[in-house]
Each structure stands twice: as C-alpha cells, then as structure tokens.
Write a structure and sequence with these properties.
This protein is of the alpha+beta class and 154 residues long. It has a single domain, classed as Roll (Nuclear Transport Factor 2, Chain: A). Strand 2 and strand 3 form a beta hairpin. This is Cds6 C-terminal domain-containing protein. InterPro entries: Cds6_C (IPR056203), NTF2-like_dom_sf (IPR032710). It comes from Azonexus hydrophilus.
C-alpha cells in the first residue's frame, strides 16, 4: 500500500525589496577624465573649422567635415553633396554666427554639439538651434547627422 507523502511545509515569500535611490553613475575613469578636456578642445576646433569653411564658401573643406555616408534629407550622399555645392556657391557672402556649444560626449568616439546658429546670405536669413552628431573615424571627428530647428517667427 502506498503512503501519501506528508504535505510540504509552507514557503515564506519575502516581500519585494523597498525601492532605493537610483544608483549613482560611476565616476569616469582617470583615462576618461583626462580625455574629456582634450576631446572638448578638439570638438571646439572642429566646430570652428566647419563654421569657417562654410562662411568662407570653401566647399571642399566644408564637405570634409561630413562622414562620407552623410546624406541629410537627400536620397544619397552624392545628391546631398551636389545640392550643398550648388547652394553654397550661389549664396554670395555668408554671415554665420554660432553660439557657445553644449558638448555631450559618449565614450571617446561619439559627441553631440548643440548651439544657436544665425545664418545670413543673399538668399536666406535664418536663426535657430543646430545639433550635430559626430563620430570619430580614423582619428577625425565627422558629422553623421545634423538637425536645425528654426526659431519661431514673430
């Protein structure tokens, strides 16, 4: 005759742990902390070079600031580059003022630059906020994406 096994003792279920404060972000390593000022300096130099090339209508230098695959809103990088060449060459004198950039680094090879931009040429007068997403490729910062949000017209 088979005997029934005695019932298992009840198992106590612990209540969920009380919520705690969010864990602080780890402090950057010494290497990352040392890299940040150097990266910020190189990003500011990059931004100055991009701005100067655009304002001086140096199309070749301007385009060198963009990743080869960058296409903006165009169907292809080649179409975007052709459009930029056409627009910049026809702009006449360009007045380009940039505000102090907010720089956000992600690791040692990605960065976002956000700044006020004021552009004036014979064809266009525009002010707004520009954001550039950059990636360091072969030791050089290059623009992968950019957005421009115009200020509201009054």
């Amino acid at each position: 005759m088979e005997q029934e096994a005695p019932p298992a003792p009840p198992v106590a279920i612990a209540p969920p742990p009380a919520p705690s404060a969010p864990m602080p972000m780890p402090a950057p390593s010494a290497a990352q902390a040392a890299l940040a000022p150097q990266a910020e300096r190189s990003l500011r130099e990059f931004l100055d070079g991009w701005r100067n090339a655009w304002a001086e209508r140096d199309i070749a230098a301007y385009l060198q600031h963009y990743h080869p695959d960058f296409k903006g809103q165009a169907a292809s990088p080649e179409q975007w580059r052709a459009a930029r060449q056409r627009i910049i060459s026809r702009a006449g004198e360009i007045e380009l003022q940039l505000g102090q950039p907010e720089i956000r680094l992600e690791g040692s090879d990605r960065a976002w630059l956000t700044f006020a931009q004021r552009y004036r040429s014979k064809a266009l007068n525009d002010e707004g906020i520009k954001q550039l997403q950059l990636r360091r490729t072969d030791g050089r910062w290059l623009i992968e994406q950019e957005t421009f949000t115009p200020n509201r017209r009054k």
